Amino acid sequence: MELPAHVDELTPVWREIRAALRQAVGDSTYELWLACLEVEEWDGSVLCIKAPPTTRSWVVKRFGRVVESCASRVTGTSVKVTFDLGPDGDREGHHSQRTAATRREVTLNPRFSFEQFVIGEGNRLAHGAALAVAELPGQAYNPLFLQAPPGLGKTHLVHAIGNYILAFGDGARVQFTTAEAFTNHFISSLGSHSLEHFKHDYRDADVLLIDDVQFLASKAKTSEEFFHTFNALYETGRQLVLTCDRLPHHLHDVEERLRERFESGLVAEICPPDLQTRLAILRKRAALDQVPLADPRVLDLIAERITDNVRALEGALIRIVAHHSLTGRPIDLALAQFVLEGSYPRAIDQASSVSISDVKDAVALYFDLSVADMVSSSRAARLAWPRHLAIYLARDLTGASLQDLGRSFGGRNHTTILNACKRVSERLKTDVEAARDVDNLSKAMCSSRRDRQH
Question: Does domain 275-343 fall into CATH 1.10.8.60?
Answer without folding.
Answer: yes
